[in-house]
Amino acid sequence: MVQYVGVENMVRLIAATGIEPYLIGLAGYIEEDFRRWTLFEKAPRVASHSPDGVIELMPTSDGELYGFKYVNGHPKNTRTGLQTVTAFGVLSDVETGYPRLLSEMTITTALRTAATSAVAARYLAREDAAVMAIIGLGSQSEFQVLAFKALNGIRRLQVYDIDPAATAKFMANLAGHGLEIEVASSAEAAVLGADIITTVTADKLKATILSDNMIGAGVHINAVGGDCPGKTELQRDILLRADVFVEFPEQTRIEGEIQQMGPDFPVTELWRVIVGETKGRRTEDQITIFDSVGFATEDFSALRYLRDQVEGTDYYDEIDLLTEPEDPRNLFGLLSAPAAAPRAVLGAR
Questions:
Q1: Which residues pair with 103 in a beta bridge?
Q2: Beta strand 2-5 pairing with 46-50
Q3: Contact criterion met (CB below 8 Å) for 224 and 200
Q4: Nearest to 133 by CA among 182, 169, 80
Q5: The pLDDT of residue 188 is above 70
Q6: What angle do the packed helices 19-35 and 296-310 form, to 10 degrees?
Q7: Which domains does the chain have, with CATH numbers?
């Protein structure tokens, strides 16, 4: 049998744990796996692009466990009442090849993306950072806010979205979370005086969400929205002024903000900062960018954390995903067993 965490149980687990404590625990697993970076098999995600979106597989292994995520990104889906992003993931035992956990990963992806952003900001933002601007108030925005609140102490927000309905949704969802939120009239107004700027827009196209004249000294930019070929949010000149940090360069050069730059444009891998091999923020005036596209090790961390959280609880079901005949060499025998006898057609007499 395989443990299965569906959407209902995931919602129950978060409600029982609390979203901020869950984000804190998840961030710990993500940071731990960044510290084990050299143990992991790493490759850019396998993507199938279409005019309407993308479907991707994101695999990795640390030699003991193997994990992968299936995820899509289809911005037009919201026009017909569907989610832009849906996902599920599997965690397997390398020794046997048997899957041990199957889980929803739509909610989990939002949580791990936000937790990773907050972990990166611990190393890249100024220690006195107090105000965060958010441009784009879609499905990821609340998760980002609560991760930065829980892990970085951010409670003052300046926010902007071109869609008033998205802004209303955001304000309603975060009411009662102890945040001071100012709704700005423009992206320019939102970033004015901000210490951290998060860009997390949804459309899969090249855009200038932040222009060079909007970015002052000492700012940390958490660039989350540019996550596929052809989609960017930052004007190229900002990258030339900043120090850019990435998860896995081979993937980020295809999908991140640095796809605008040449193949030799210098970047620093985040794991090297976390293990102390190199510095993140060196000066108060330095502009830092976390060019976040999401990487398989973060999903692996999220699945490990989820597995440990549900162990010994009722927040999972067991499903008979594995075929396990008494004689492992006699798979065909299952088809002639009494359980395989034809069943009556529902409604037949």
A1: 5, 89
A2: unpaired
A3: yes
A4: 182
A5: yes
A6: 130
A7: 2-107+298-324 (3.30.1780.10), 119-294 (3.40.50.720)
Residue 340 has what pLDDT?
A: 52
For residue 312, the one-letter residue type is G
In the predicted model, what is the mean pLDDT of residues 253-268? 94
Residue 345 has pLDDT above 50, yes or no: no
Name the catalytic one among 227, 243, 291, 299. 227
| Side-chain-side CA neighbours of residue 276 (13 Å) | 0
Token digits for 306? Answer: 């989820």
Model confidence, pTM: 0.93
pLDDT top residue among 7 and 348: 7
Q: What is the DSSP string of 40-101?
A: SB----EEEEETTEEEEEEEEE-SSEEEEEEEEE-GGGGGGT--S--EEEEEEETTT--EEE
Name residue 316's amino acid.
Y
Active site residue 62: no
Residue 347 has pLDDT above 70, yes or no: no
- Other beta carbons within 10 Å of 19: 17
Are the CB atoms for 114 and 94 separated by under 8 Å? no
CA torsion 203-207-209-215 (nearest 10°) is 150
Give the angle subtended at the CA of 85 by the CAs of 58 and 98, to the nearest 5°. Answer: 40
Predicted confidence (pLDDT) per residue in 197-226, tens digit: 999 986 656 778 899 999 999 999 999 987
Task: Give the whole-angstrom CA distance, residue 68 versus residue 148.
Answer: 26
* pLDDT of 344 above 70: no
Please state the three-class secondary structure of 96-128 as a single string.
CCCEEEEEECHHHHHHHHHHHHHHHHHHHCCCC
pLDDT in tens, 56-102: 999 999 999 999 999 998 888 888 999 888 999 999 999 999 999 99
Determine the residue type at 254.
Answer: I
Three-state secondary-structure class, residue 134? strand
Residues 302 and 105 sit within 8 Å (Cβ to Cβ): yes
Query: How are strands ordered across the β-sheet holding 99-104?
Result: 46-50, 53-61, 65-73, 87-93, 99-104, 2-5, 317-319
